[in-house]
Design goal:
The chain is of the alpha/beta class and 226 residues long. The protein has two domains: 10-67, no CATH class; 114-223, 2-Layer Sandwich (Zincin-like). 38% of the residues lie in helices and 20% in strands. The strands form three sheets. A four-stranded mixed beta sheet has the order 4-5-7-6, with no helix packed on it. A hairpin with a 4-residue loop joins β6 (97-99) and β7 (104-107). The radius of gyration is 20 Å and the shape is globular. The chain starts with 9 loop residues before the first strand and ends in an 8-residue tail after the last helix.
């Protein structure tokens, strides 16, 4: 098969899927189109053209959200929905000490270093999330196989068919009620794998304010930056 050249603003992902789907990448407004293996370039471009009004609407929403962007003040980190002042101590451990009362983080990291910030969130996620997941699973009677936490570009979390849970370290920027919802969402998939009525009923039973968390993820959550 010859290489298909698509316009540079469009990224094509061929997968074993039944239908074509679109999303707009938050960082650069690039059009991400997922298509079945057998779909041609012409069919794909027709699908994108047909959905141009939706694409423009999504881009407009993103620009509106960016105008409300949460600016990180120098010397601070956004942690669990709140701004914490970083006290840099060279010999402190990287994850450091999070003082919730005084809203400070004592750590060896330089908060102005993007790579160090990203690693700090990963370490925090590995420290904070597993106990929360275990506690939530025990409280609501869920069983899972294992937990993995890493940086992901498009998903907050996922659940494999074997009951393994996967979470995005970026969750550590979200408020606690949103973190709890994301945990419940993936735990619910261990019992109801698809997003059907039974799944959402289960989510609501375990997390009555889930709609509030969903709204946060659709708005502020899309522009959070580590």
């Amino acid at each position: 098969m010859s290489m298909e050249l698509f316009p540079p603003e469009i990224e094509i992902i061929r997968k074993r899927v039944k239908r074509m789907t679109l999303r707009i990448r938050t960082e650069d407004e690039r059009i991400i189109c997922t298509i079945p293996w057998y779909v041609s370039k012409a069919e794909t471009m027709e699908f994108i053209k047909k959905n141009t009004p939706w694409i423009e609407k999504q881009k407009h929403k993103l620009r509106q959200l960016r105008s409300l962007h949460i600016h990180r003040e120098p010397g601070t980190l956004l942690y669990m929905g709140e701004s914490y002042r970083v006290v840099t101590v060279p010999n402190a451990t990287n994850p450091g000490i999070v003082n919730h009362e005084e809203m400070i983080i004592i750590s060896s990291i330089d908060p102005e270093d993007a790579a160090l910030r990203k690693e700090w969130y990963r370490l925090q996620a590995h420290e904070v999330l597993p106990p929360l997941i275990h506690e939530s699973a025990k409280l609501h009677g869920f069983a899972y196989k294992k937990i993995s936490i890493k940086h992901q570009t498009s998903k907050w979390g996922s659940c494999s068919v074997d009951g393994s849970l996967h979470f995005n370290a970026k969750m550590m920027l979200c408020p606690e009620h949103v973190i709890n919802y994301l945990i419940i969402h993936e735990l619910a998939h261990t019992r109801e794998f698809h997003h059907g009525d039974k799944f959402w009923q289960l989510v609501e039973e375990c997390c009555p304010n889930y709609l509030e968390a969903e709204k946060y993820l659709r708005t502020t959550g899309r522009i959070l930056e580590m």
